[in-house]
């Protein structure tokens, strides 16, 4: 039983990081209809900025800087590159592929800069752990869970009550009416991208801190593991992103923990499991757990 | 449809010249270029299949590399010796290569048909992202079903042969044509050209045919299509099946060009590559898919080969921009540039170029104002 | 419209460059006669020559990863090899010829590696470096046909019976066996010890696993397996599983980042047992990671190649050359590896020169005559390539992370006589 609960705790804490990334995907998709593959390298950018500045600025200030840098970077990507295509009513596929191109450029430059190094993020938690009822969880993960929960709550409130949130929801519901009502669509879009950049930066820091060892040339691949989380919850549902993140986190953690018992399926299952879960969920609900059905009408 | 060059005669002559050039290529170029060419052909065949699926039938798929893998491994398994002479080499069925090739293509067709109920249930971007699942499941099988796939280190692909003529370095052992030795690469070049021509011809006919038009209708509007009496699930399934068979044929040829196949050649990034090929080429355009495949496949090795002649790029191992990084940057930038500035891809540019030529006024100073159609 | 005109012009220009490049290659009829066993008519020496060898120059190929997932490994090896040959060329080269290196970066893509090999295969005498087991697998039959001696940047036991493959020292299984055996001699492992092994899929991990299994078999213990992928970064789940099994030691056949994660998580979760790592588990950057302290206490690294600061003539020369050329870069064991590979190749070329046969066949043959040298201390024990199918050495360095250049201090050399 202890094995089960340890795996569950590790999975949930990992899941909150997935949830942060998935939320970034979802917010951008909701506001601009873009499946943003460039999210992956923005996440790496965040981790990279923290790793290179935390020595001088201290960890928390470095995270703040990274969040700002990523928010600006993501907003710029939208304004400079994605908006022209969106204006011309580029299809959902074209937009997604555009972000693949952007991702390649950004990731190539970042991996070139990281070079042969492993850059630790300098998180103050080090490798400390918390033990609770016989379950050991790294402090980083507790911090991640707390930070993610705060961010999600803040976002939920902002989404519900702030002008920006209302404008964004009305845009997602009916862009033309929203525009007629005086909502500045382009500003809403850039704002959504900025928020997703911020979330990516935070997720990137947690992903590369202990138990991982730092930023490496493969860091940009990490965000790709969160794609199933975003999709299975429903690409346009923020709640779905959170649920999806937790589901995938637990699924990955469980398969790792029970790898010995699952050996007949071949070893190294954890990379495949998120996608199997995704396929099964989509077969059951073609627009994800919480996604709205209309969204597939392109 | 696309504009035609003014005189069919000129067009035919151009085609003929192109064909002759392609046929005499192995006589002149080095092994490097032939090898690049073989990989280009393999990618082109598979890309034509994907453009039929995504561009014509409107079904986004990120699983293409999975079906390419079925072709490559299927061929290798069907053609391999049942009792291999090397210890622990994965065994096969020992079928003649031609049968193995057809078998592998059919196998992928079956796999595509099996996936089509899923494809029928999902739409748009959800379908694309769900199809990613196939890639990861496929990779897991390739790595773990060692008896079939050889696992991490892969398995050898039996050389292709037809009527006793082997597309390898032997049998006939020393095939010398006008002083140039025709080995595996040279022979495979012709096989590749033949397969590519076949793929092209079939795709063109398919697009122009009734089922082809029905697929386009499904792409444009599923509701309208079903109102017109087109069975949407059937045509979606058919599109997946046909595209998978193209992928598999590309895969078979890829296996032949490699000589040995490993799981790393069929991963997530390869699927993305295929998508990028058809987008750069111009969605739905067959020659665009071929052009895109050639560009994406040839760019990295060619850039690296001439790295020392390029500005900004340093020699391999030095500090600064490596050739392969430059290739990645160009690749990314090309995708962005094509989508923003030329959404019709290379095919669209080609069409514009042809149109411009006919419209060019006597004085070059005055450009005609074009209206985007 | 100006915009699209420019794009068209750009594509056209690219096309012209491409066509020009193709045309520049010319016919290949003449070229195929260039290699072969024509016999050097020159007056330098009575040496038979083959592709990649002229009267004044020998070209060697390096097919490596500088920008892909193993770029962090490939680059310092290339640097080490380049430094070696720079120095050697200054001292007159080998066989009265200067050695030129042709470096190709495949970025861990088998397809690109195959294409690049086609290019190299016509112009080089041997492969000074071949990195990546998928690439090795894809190229192997071609290497055999071409009789291309290829020095691997890896130590898989599965390729020992290949005549054209050169492995520098002991293979992964021996590394791991030696590390565990060392721990046993130190009293850290007892008879019947249970070993948890976290390993990469593929050659590296499976070869390492052979070693831990052999050790467990001989000592009446058992091995608990945890297989991982190159992209896994968080070892929490694996460590938790091993802790549950209550293992007495952890064997690691992983990448450096995974090593840091495994040892760090292990120390944090109370799995404070010795961790035995293969050579490639180490990178000095781990000392700066959150797991730095834990790694210093718990990790033992076993490898053939000398740690960066080993006190022997060979490693010292390499270290000096590296620190004077790249004063700002972190010294790594891979630099020594690159240098040692260069050194090994020059042994083979010298032998081939003495035999009067610098063809590819001649170089492969000469390679299998190398015997009894430890390359001035660049590897742990004397190398012997005369028994094909057997590892060239049974001896490895056992080192522990420490604050030193390269981040390792040698504890012992293990293996060889005492283990047999």
Features:
heterotrimer, B: 373 residues, mainly alpha, two-stranded antiparallel sheet, two-stranded antiparallel ribbon, C: 420 residues, alpha/beta, Rossmann fold, 7-stranded mixed sheet, 12 helices, disordered N terminus
Topology:
The complex is a heterotrimer of chains A (298), B (373) and C (420).
Chain A: H1 2-32, H2 39-57, H3 59-87, H4 92-114, E1 129-132, E2 135-138, H5 139-161, H6 163-173, H7 175-180, H8 185-208, H9 227-233, H10 238-257, H11 273-284
Helix pairs in contact in A: 1-5, 1-8, 1-9, 1-10, 2-3, 2-4, 2-8, 3-4, 3-8, 5-6, 5-8, 6-8, 9-10, 9-11
Chain B: H1 8-28, H2 31-56, H3 64-79, H4 97-121, H5 124-144, H6 146-149, E1 155-156, E2 161-162, E3 165-166, E4 176-177, E5 180-181, H7 184-208, H8 210-220, H9 222-227, H10 232-258, E6 260-261, H11 268-281, H12 286-305, H13 323-341, H14 345-359
Helix pairs in contact in B: 1-7, 2-7, 2-10, 2-11, 2-12, 3-4, 3-5, 3-10, 4-10, 7-8, 7-10, 8-10, 11-12, 11-14, 12-13, 12-14
Chain C: H1 2-25, E1 48-49, E2 57-64, H2 71-90, E3 98-105, H3 110-121, E4 126-130, H4 133-146, E5 150-152, E6 165-166, H5 172-185, E7 194-200, H6 203-218, E8 222-228, H7 236-244, E9 249-253, H8 256-269, E10 275-278, H9 292-298, E11 299-303, H10 313-325, H11 333-355, E12 357-358, H12 360-367, E13 371-373, E14 383-384, E15 395-401, E16 408-415
Parallel strand pairs in C: 1-12, 2-3, 2-4, 4-5, 5-6, 7-8, 7-9, 9-10, 10-11
Antiparallel strand pairs in C: 11-15, 13-14, 15-16
Helix pairs in contact in C: 2-10, 2-11, 3-4, 5-6, 7-8, 8-9, 10-11, 11-12
Quick recap of the structure?
Chain B is mainly alpha-helical and 373 residues long.
Explain how this protein is built.
Chain A has 298 residues and is mainly alpha-helical. Chain A has one domain (2-222). Helices cover 69% and strands 3% of the residues of chain A. Chain A is built from eleven helices and two strands. Chain A starts with a helix and ends in a 14-residue tail after the last helix. Chain B has helices at 8-28, 31-56, 64-79, 97-121, 124-144, 146-149, 184-208, 210-220, 222-227, 232-258, 268-281, 286-305, 323-341, 345-359, and strands at 155-156, 161-162, 165-166, 176-177, 180-181, 260-261. In chain B, helix 3 packs parallel to helix 5 (124-144) and helix 8 packs across helix 10. In chain B, strand 4 (176-177) and strand 5 form a beta hairpin. With 373 residues, chain B is mainly alpha-helical. Chain C is built from twelve helices and 16 strands. In chain C, strand 4, helix 4 and strand 5 form a beta-alpha-beta unit. Chain C has 420 residues and is an alpha/beta fold. Chain C has two domains: 19-170 and 309-389, Rossmann fold (3-Layer(aba) Sandwich); 172-303 and 399-414, Response regulator (Rossmann fold), CATH 3.40.50.2300. Helices cover 41% and strands 19% of the residues of chain C. Chains B and C meet through helix 2, strand 5, strand 6, helix 12 and helix 13 of B and helix 1, helix 2, strand 3, helix 3 and helix 4 of C.
